[in-house]
Amino acid sequence: CMEKLRMERAWTYGLNLTQHVDIFGKELSVNAEVYRTDFTNQVIVDKEENISQIMVYNLDGKSYSNTYQLELKYELIPRMDLTAAFRYNDVQMTIDKMLMREPMVNKYKGLVSVSYATNLKKWQFDLTAQFNGSARIPSTTQLPENYQMPAWSPHYAILNAQVTKFFKRWEIYLGGE
Fold this sequence. Notes:
The chain is mainly β.
């Protein structure tokens, strides 16, 4: 018998604090956030119970997400902005009657971004580095040993760069990752 999937429902609540601090005559913006989501129903995509099947069913147990983030913004020199952010994710769900970390969700993400605009904003240059923490990989212990995956993915970084030329009514950009 196939269970009818119900609409996902959740309660989200949190706190956001922003503080502006004067450092060397310039404003440092500090933003801290804490959010929690409690699912009362969630559609679970279970790749754990049986390695040869993907089971899809309604939540039977607990599921929640806690997110903590800190972000800093500061103008280093005129027209050059620096942004740094860090987010930690604690995302747990009940899969096959066990509360466990949700697969494929990074434990943390970090970001550092520098943006510079020329005088009269004719050109803008952006460089962003994103750091991604490890994520739990669905269990493959049911497979023969030589086909098993590690329990956690490796952490990795992504670097993005973009140059933008502004015209009176339009703009053009070139970017790469």
